[in-house]
Amino acid sequence: MTSEKIVSSEPAPPSKEKTRKNSTFTRVFRYSLVRLFSMMITVAIGVYLTILIANMGGYVDTIMRNEIKDNITQGILANPAFRSLSTEAKANLIQTKIETEINRRGLNQPFAIRSVRYLKNALTLNLGRAIYMKSDQGSKEVRLILLERLPATLLFTGTSSLMVFFASVYIALSLSRKYGSFWDKIIIAFSPTSAAPPWFYGIFLILIFAAIFKVLPFGGLVDSPSPRNPLDYGLSVLKHLILPISSVVMSFIFLSIYNWRTFFLIYSSEDYVEMAKAKGLSARDVERRYILRPTLPTIITNFALLVITLWTGFTITETVFLWPGLGITLFRAIGFYDTPVIVGSTIIYAYLLAITVFLLDFVYALVDPRVKVGSGGGGSQ
């Protein structure tokens, strides 16, 4: 009797590893969709509230209608070509031109309808045209106005903020090893000076170094007329950067060092850190493995949010130093009631913030093995 091998035609069950990977991918994908949807709702609500506030609930439309009436009326009355017209003909002409301009700007529609259209355009990054403001090239496109001011803001706020961030983390980590030392007490003593904003220090720096000693410029981005040589141009920009950056550093550095120092001291007192010291590990190994590694998610969060805030700039500080960035642009837009520029700045900031918060969840999972994206009740744990 011959033995026969029975071969099953049914497919082999999938391996546990493959099933686990598919489950992880499905969980992460579902979690990403939910997070993106919830963030889009949050961005939409924030932008719509900005539209309502920037328009003062529609009151800005009334201001614009009155300005249109005044400008057209004064223009026609002062135009010699219309002096021969009768009073009634002038009134009809004025009324016709006013209605035409109001219709052209869409001010004939209720604000509730226009606000929804504003929201749709903002969410699709159709930033439209400014009402009063122009770029240096004469364009009223909000996109061009913001892009033109962005490099100056990134140069100023980026340099100063990143300098404060990395310097404060490094110094704070060093001070956490020397608790109660002379320099530790100095930082604690000077930390209340951060209560004053950068523009406050900026005014004093301008008075001392620009008005009295006359060694640094009062403000601006570059000398006037600007140097044609690239090297001289760069040196001129660096010279104009000294006072703005100094004002930001003076305002934030001491409190930032104090906060990070306290943060590192809390982790330095943990039992596993004391155990690592007892095993004879060097101070740098203890800091790298047992202090910096568990605090890395917090450091990354602060760094990411810092990068996002660079978009808005230091509004009043840029105004004090006449720095041609986004901060002073937003300040002038608020003064002019230029709603498209205000909303344009807000929507870009909101999108950047939402994307950063979304990506942080995945960054946490990379730097901290305890974090699993989408586990549990749909959030990262």
Overall geometric form: flat
Tally of separate helices:
13
Whole-number count of domains: 2
Alpha-beta classification:
mainly alpha
Question: Helical amount among residues, as a percent range?
Answer: over 70%
Structure description:
The chain is mostly helical and 381 residues long. The protein has two domains: 29-123, no CATH class; 150-337, MetI-like fold (Orthogonal Bundle). Helix content is 71%, strand content 0%. The protein contains 13 helices and no strands. The protein has helices at 16-54, 59-78, 87-104, 111-123, 142-176, 182-190, 198-212, 230-268, 271-278, 283-309, 315-320, 326-336, 339-367. α1 (16-54) crosses α4 (111-123). It is flat, with a radius of gyration of 30 Å. It starts with 15 loop residues before the first helix and ends in a 14-residue tail after the last helix.
Helix-strand layout with pairing:
Layout: H1 16-54, H2 59-78, H3 87-104, H4 111-123, H5 142-176, H6 182-190, H7 198-212, H8 230-268, H9 271-278, H10 283-309, H11 315-320, H12 326-336, H13 339-367
Helix pairs in contact: 1-4, 1-13, 2-3, 5-8, 5-10, 5-13, 7-8, 9-10, 10-13, 12-13
In short:
With 381 residues, this protein is an all-alpha fold. The protein has 13 helices and no strands.
Q: Which characteristics define this entry?
A:
disordered C terminus; 13 helices; single chain; 381 residues
